[in-house]
Specification:
alpha+beta
Length: 148
Amino acid sequence: MTEKPKKAVFVSGAISPEFIAGSIAKHQSKTTIGAHQIFLGQVRADEIQGKQVVAIDYSAYEAMAETVFHEIRESAFEKYELTCLHTYHSLGVVKTGEICLFVFVSAPRRKVVFEAIEFLVEAIKEKAPVFGKELFADDTYTWKKNTQ
């Protein structure tokens, strides 16, 4: 069995609504699909120590992160009967209210997409070496801690 090539995961800046819509539209010709599930991670305007987050600056060791995303992807295909699976994560500055993570799965039946999306998002949050600096209006920052 030959190894599948790694898919590009990273997007510079926020993930646009047009990008998301285009990804969905590309699946209309795949008539064996009966269900899609999408997770969109959005930057929150959290308050931390009295300061409000205005953006997150994402960084990653890209080669290592691409490998981890690929391993997560392959484990999802092994675990679930999926037709398609796409993950995209922002690098660089993403302002509050903008999308920083887009996970999109498709399958013949609906139940599997619900289970797969939860598995994928949790695995990405736990394993992917992506780092975020929460930026404040006063030009200070704090390193983001992943939460549920």
